[in-house]
Design brief:
Layout lengths: L31 H5 L7 E2 L24 E2 H9 L6 H9 L1 H12 L10 H4 L14 E6 L7 H7 L3 E7 L2 H9 L8 E5 L8 H4 L4 E7 L10 H9 L2 E12 L4 H4 L6 E3 L2 E3 L5 E3 L3 H10 L3 E14 L4 E13 L4
Parallel strand pairs: 3-4, 3-6, 4-5, 6-7
Antiparallel strand pairs: 1-2, 7-12, 8-9, 9-10, 11-12
Length: 327
């Protein structure tokens, strides 16, 4: 199993998740024992995350500090990991990104990720729809994978219509082959968010909600803005983008070996897929530059249990809601 993936397939709300952590996010140096809540607070140190200066008139609620305190060993590991993958290999990884994700789904089929039954609890925007309304709410799921987000929500909310797209043609085919796939409720299609105009498929700005669940992190940082601008064009005024993704200093980030670093907070797994680990500042700045209003953007902290290995490890995610302003 490549670094950073054996814990990524676990539902952050399933039975493998134990206590939620309330980790301090102050720039001061908190007591290390309080930092972990598990009695593992020895040899802690703080590494601040550089804050970005925001311009413009958008409002925001964001946690602008680092999500957790690292141990001295963790801090040393990150600071010493300065060697990045050479330019030729990086260009090859970008060129073969779709092929690598297709291989991922060929190898794992529909069995790697669990159904995401937690999404309507985490995002209230995805629940409580009035089934008596004739007009369905339109949801666009980008990076739909094999439907682990899509199908549980359709079961809970029949008054939704889903557009679902993925970079991988194989993943899209898995969605279409799913026994619950129904063209009256959903439409799946292949799309490279960074270059394929969504308007070619959706025609008009008709989308009420866009979901990006562990998607933006798989895109090269230089192309993230293009993806968000592409989404902006199909979103209704007043519509929103809901995001959950990997956060800075997540356990998976700390497990990468030397030679897997592509850029700051950006890594390649052994199977060629890539992952970026966000600070809330970085994520909020991306959306602001793409024209969105930041409603909220925060860290979500969990401890995830791997029963087989007897580990309970810290997971750090970023979660936010970003709105297309009404004209």
């Amino acid at each position: 199993m490549e670094a950073g993936t054996e814990f990524e397939n676990q539902d952050p709300k399933d039975t493998h998740t134990c206590t939620s952590l309330s980790l301090p996010v102050s720039n001061s140096s908190p007591n290390c024992q309080e930092e972990t809540s598990q009695g593992n607070g020895d040899n802690c140190t703080n590494i601040p995350v550089p804050s970005l200066n925001y311009t413009g008139s958008h409002s925001m609620k964001t946690s602008g500090h680092h999500p957790r305190t690292l141990t001295e060993e963790e801090a040393a590991k990150l600071s010493q990991d300065t060697r990045v993958v050479n330019d030729f290999k990086q260009m090859t990884l970008e060129k073969e990104a779709q092929k690598n994700w297709d291989k991922f789904y060929k190898r794992n089929s529909t069995k790697f990720f669990k159904d995401r039954h937690w999404t309507s609890r985490e995002f209230r925007e995805l629940s409580g729809f009035d089934s008596s309304q004739e007009e369905k709410k339109i949801v666009l799921e980008v990076g739909c994978g094999v439907g682990n987000f899509l199908f549980p929500l359709l079961g809970e909310n029949p008054n939704l219509f889903f557009y679902a797209c993925d970079f991988s043609p194989r993943a899209v085919q898995f969605v279409k082959d799913h026994p619950l796939y129904n063209s009256s409720q959903c439409m799946a299609f292949q799309c490279d968010l960074t270059q394929d105009p969504l308007l070619d498929t959706l025609v008009n700005p008709t989308v009420d909600i866009v979901s990006m669940i562990f998607v933006l992190s798989a895109i090269h940082p230089e192309k993230m803005l293009s993806a968000l601008e592409n989404i902006y064009k199909v979103l209704k005024p007043g519509g929103c983008v809901l995001v959950r993704d990997y956060g800075l200093y997540d356990y998976a980030q700390l497990r990468f070996s030397p030679g897997q670093k592509l850029a700051e907070n950006f890594y390649v797994r052994q199977d060629g897929t890539r992952a970026y680990y966000f600070s809330t500042d970085y994520l909020s700045d991306l959306f602001a530059r793409a024209g969105y209003q930041i409603d909220n953007c925060d860290y979500v902290t969990r401890e995830t249990v791997n029963k087989k290995e007897g580990l309970c490890v810290p997971r750090i995610f970023v979660q936010g809601k970003f709105i297309k302003m009404r004209s």
